User: What shape does this take?
Amino acid sequence: MADEVLYESADGLKLFARRYGRRDSASKVLCMHGLTRNHKDFEPLIAKLGEDHDIIAVDQRGRGRSDWDPKPERYAVPTYVGDMMRLLDLLGLREVALVGTSMGGLMSMVMMHLAPERFTGVVLNDIGPVLDKAGLDRIAGYVGGSAAVASWEEAARLTEQVQSSAFPHFGPEDWMAFAKRTWVEKAPGEIRLDYDPAIAASLGAIRIGFKERLAAWRLFSRMKSRPLLVVRGEISDLFSARTAARMVKRHPDASEITVPNVGHAPILDEPEAAEGIGRFLDRLRR
Assistant: This one.
């Protein structure tokens, strides 16, 4: 079962989320996607987890069915975090597990800093306090750069062209499924990436120098009060094995899952990821 959730941001945008599973479940989960994705990014994981959770997957502003922001400077983590806290308040949810992929993981870290009492635990998918430049450069090379295409086959081909290094084992069916989650048919023969191209400007605000890394590790240290699961793609170019190991070492209740032969970022329906996240969420519920 899935229901639409329509709500308004503090600055007047109409935002969208989808709610899956059982409303009476003690396991409440908020799933937050990466830079260019949307709520559909989590549907493969949700299918693996089954109906035994109450899961809210969101479209951040500028993505999917949420409004595009007329002020692109608001495409930033603090704004997204404000939207998420508003959503939780509107739904009346006080104890929630967070699952954050890439940008959604950075949001999770900030949310834990702001209100740790509201969150039962966190899954960080291929993200941490240190971001590798190679991955950032690769992402900057494709965000906002694709024009409309006339067919889903072309959308799948372009998706493969951009993402093949992260998913070398994918076949035609996988790429078509990926395209269906990340493109949208605006009109017959007009298929576009399902986000506002203006989100690309937010990459320019990212700094990865010593001061920024120090501040990010301090932010990470605020997560120690809740269990943490770190998921890493084995061949990720954004999130290194060294950073993942350091995170687990610094956190008193953390574990790591490495998804073999996958880069940034795991889909989370991989057996290692889906089973590990399922066990983690069951533990938080208990």
Observations:
- The radius of gyration is 18 Å.
